[in-house]
Write a structure and sequence with these properties.
- Pfam families: UDG.
- By secondary structure, this protein is of the alpha/beta class.
- It has ten helices and six strands; from the N terminus they run H-H-E-E-H-H-E-H-E-H-H-E-E-H-H-H.
- The protein has a single domain, classed as Uracil-DNA glycosylase-like domain (Uracil-DNA Glycosylase, subunit E).
- Helices cover 49% and strands 11% of the residues.
- Strands 1-3-2-4-6-5 form a six-stranded mixed sheet, with helices on both faces.
- Strand 5 and strand 6 form a beta hairpin.
- It binds uracil.
- Uracil binds next to helix 4.
């Protein structure tokens, strides 16, 4: 059976828009299901909507989102519209606190359904919350710049959250921004290789060698 990804994702969005499974629905203005190219080999997943996302219903449109767009464009050579972006939770946690385990548990089926429809080759996790859901890793400084296995053939690639970089400006070698630069360059290479239909395992092995040689990990 041929499934139309957009139709399937619209159906998931409709369910999300009515969701009252956790208390975040009481304070939200809009749900933020996710957006972007549903045929992209890469999906980027953050933690949860902030104030700008809550008022617009779109992911990563505030300060962190603007930085993400710039890093994608300047460092990875990727246009935001060429990838899909979403979050672990679809409603804003008050005062931008980290979502609780119960909130994440209530919400995660939506993200999993979205991923099963989109079937990306790689999920790029932005920040600790997304990393720990997808990889069970705890230390981003040790886990970033590397691939992990998720379900089936889907890999994850860990990098810093752009919000963290808004508080860390140094581009000195070994700084979070410098490592993000290395990650984004690798992400650009993997995006173009996967778009050309290169085999995921070959792409992973080429990126791993590149990261080792360049001091990115
Ligand atoms: N931070 C996130 O994790 N997600 C957004 O959509 C915006 C900021």
């Amino acid at each position: 059976m041929i499934i139309n990804k957009n139709t399937e994702l619209e159906a998931i969005k409709k369910t999300i828009s009515k969701c009252e499974k956790c208390s975040l629905h009481l304070t939200r203005n809009n749900v933020v299901p996710g957006e972007g190219n549903v045929d992209s080999p890469l999906v980027f997943i953050g933690e949860g909507p902030g104030a700008d996302e809550d008022s617009s219903g779109r992911p990563f449109v505030g300060r962190a989102g603007k930085l993400l767009d710039k890093m994608l464009k300047d460092w990875a050579g990727i246009n935001r519209n060429d990838i899909y972006i979403s979050n672990i939770v679809k409603c804003r946690p008050p005062k931008n606190r980290v979502p609780t385990d119960d909130e994440m548990k209530s919400c995660i089926q939506y993200l999993e359904s979205q991923m099963l429809v989109i079937k990306p080759k790689v999920i790029v996790t932005l920040g600790a919350t997304s990393m720990s859901y997808f990889t069970n890793k705890k230390k981003i400084s040790e886990s970033r710049g590397k691939f992990y296995d998720w379900y089936g053939n889907i890999k994850t690639f860990v990098t810093f959250h752009p919000s963290y970089l808004l508080r860390n400006h140094s581009m000195e070698k070994g700084s979070p921004r410098w490592y993000s630069y290395m990650d984004m360059r690798a992400i650009g290479v993997m995006f173009r290789a996967l778009q050309k239909g290169k085999n995921i395992n070959e792409v992973v092995s080429a990126i791993n060698s590149r990261m080792k040689e360049s001091g990115g990990i």
